[in-house]
Amino acid sequence: MHAHHRTSSPDPAAGCGNVVTPGPDLRARLQAHTGLIVVCYCAAWCDTCRAYEPDFTRLAGQWPQHCFLWVDIEDHPALLGDDDVEDFPTLLVQSPQGNLFFGPLQPHIAHLERLVKSLEGRSQTIDGGPPPLAGLLSA
What contacts 94, CB < 8 A, 6 or more positions away? Predict the structure, then answer.
């Protein structure tokens, strides 16, 4: 089980605040969320993921209007839909319109920072990747 469970802002229309992990209120929050959803798929046993997590958390603090979600794929495999993770870290960026990015990134936070900046305000979606996360979470 992933040891870093976090709580976050109670306002579902706002960003998620800090990095969150799947929990009972997440579905409603994601359904009401209007910013980007930035997901890092990881595994507790992965040293690269453990080293990346503090930077991911710091980056989340810079963009409170977006929801940053840390998903241990062994604890929450359903949040991948029918997709698989081939390398860590694998990132998903969703907007209310759909997926904007899905795939592995080099584990340097500057790459994710540039990616999020480039995707803010973009409406063109990509094919592939998990379906909307709110729909993958059980009610």
Answer: 36, 37, 39, 100, 129, 132, 133
